[in-house]
Design brief:
alpha/beta; Rossmann fold; Methionyl-tRNA Fmet Formyltransferase, Chain A, domain 2; seven-stranded mixed β-sheet; 8 helices; elongated
């Protein structure tokens, strides 16, 4: 509940996780230490991601069946509801009337700068090296509620791809959650910090196959960041090679060549067996170690010096206009 600009749950007994997370088992273990009951609710598209050792309930909708389950198992007044990578949009009536404003959300990036989804990819594209894990109150507007608890750090140098950022956040969330729960155990006040609207930005979810098309007019720095943003665990940034769609991974900026004209961008200037030197629109090249076909096979040995990667304009136009949407059952087509 909300009282005098503080988030309060007296005599916390239960934590209900809504969604899924690779570190969920560790969060449940923290609850056990503090003698808190744990419940997990997830969607059909996310159930396979949850540790098989955990008990959970699957709902396609947060409907009356969901409400019956909650009423049967917990007292809402002394329960904390934690949305964590949830696929649902919570309606105002559910948040306020049923859950009594005891619903918070985990967000793995700074707010209000990175409201929305695909935060790892957007942060890589933007070159943001400040990591932030936080909990905020859920409202009927996406990622717009007051901040309740946050912890910041600088990303380690090895964090380059989305998988690196995600692995790092999977570690940081454990301390974040423990420190937050301790505030309830120690009965500390949890002050709500309103997000400054004038700083807010919203970034939509992404789909690699549709949004990952490479624009070869980008300079080498932007090009490298873009390819990194769609690297593991995703398919890779995509482009065309001899009329076939391919995915590029493991990119590095390289200043040791002499490419210096935009017309060269995308041209394979050198093949060094295990990697390619590809020209960009400026004086640098990028080194590419993986060129994957539609089956995920690395076909780098099939590529020859003088070949070119290219992206048709219609592919770029579609990638800019496509807005990926995901629901409880996965990608909404």
């Amino acid at each position: 509940m909300i009282k005098n600009n503080n988030f309060i749950i007296k005599n916390l007994k239960n934590v209900v996780f809504i969604g899924e997370h690779v570190s969920l088992k560790k969060l449940v273990e923290i609850n056990k230490i503090y003698k808190l009951n744990s419940f997990i609710i997830t969607s059909p598209a996310q159930k396979k991601e949850i540790d098989k050792m955990l008990n959970f309930k699957v709902f396609s909708k947060l409907d009356n069946n969901f409400k019956k389950y909650i009423k049967k198992n917990v007292n809402i007044d002394n329960s904390l509801f934690v949305s964590i990578k949830s696929r649902w949009i919570f309606k105002k009536s559910l948040i306020k009337n049923f859950l009594k404003n005891n619903l918070i959300n985990y967000h793995p990036a700074r707010l209000p700068y990175y409201r929305g989804g695909a935060t790892s990819s957007w942060r890589i594209i933007m070159g943001d090296r400040i990591d932030c894990q936080l909990f905020h109150l859920v409202t009927d507007k996406v990622d717009n509620g007051p901040i309740l608890h946050y912890e910041k750090s600088i990303l380690p140098p090895y964090c380059k791809k989305p998988i690196d950022l995600e692995n790092y956040s999977n570690i940081k969330i454990v301390d974040l959650y423990r420190n937050f729960i301790q505030k309830f155990i120690k009965k500390k006040k949890i002050l709500m910090s309103k997000q400054p609207i004038y700083l807010g930005q919203y970034f939509p979810r992404l789909n690699t196959k549709e949004n990952g098309w490479i624009d070869w007019s980008f300079d080498s720095i932007k090009l490298s960041k873009f390819i990194d943003a769609f690297d593991d665990p995703y398919l890779g940034a995509c482009t065309m090679y001899k009329s076939k769609k391919v995915y590029l991974k493991d990119a590095q900026i390289h200043g040791g060549e002499m490419s210096n004209h935009k017309f060269l961008s995308g041209l394979v200037s050198r093949h060094d067996n295990k990697w390619l030197a590809v020209c960009t629109s400026d004086e640098n090249s990028i080194l590419i170690s993986k060129v994957l076909d539609q089956k995920g096979k690395n076909i780098i040995n099939e590529i020859r010096e003088g070949d070119r990667f290219y992206t048709p304009l219609n592919k770029l136009a579609k990638s800019l206009s496509y807005k990926a949407k995901y629901g409880p059952k996965g990608l909404i087509k």
